[in-house]
Amino acid sequence: MDMMQSFTNKAKILVLFANCYDMVADGRQVAGCSVHYLFWGEQGEALLEQSEYDVSKSVGVQRAKVSMDSAMRVRVPIAPAIYEGTFETRVGGDGKPVLRLVDIAYYSNVEFKERFVPGLVVPGMIVHKEPETPAEHALAAAAEAGRTDRKSGK
Model's pTM, two decimal places? Predict the structure, then answer.
């Protein structure tokens, strides 16, 4: 296999941030577009890695970052949002595979919302009771609507 051979793959990614830069570094002009992203999966499952509830271990998902040509910035009009990323896999100088984002296309907006996990207790957490049944959800929605009406004077 030719060491310079590359393979391309597509994957959904959650782009968190994109910005162009144009600066002088080490005495030379450097320009490009920085894109920060997370792998998404089909429905966001790539973000749901199982965490251990152990504060001595890492938790969460670390974002990836790539520098691309400045012209790629127009391909990222909205963030955060879901994009289809085209990745190139090449063999790096150390012989290990290197995955690099080489193209990007808008796919959809994304919505973040809280999610109650029944039975989850974390030291120092703020305890609250989430509605558990459809009837409780309806009562909570009606109560919230009443609070909104009182605030607006209706």
Answer: 0.71
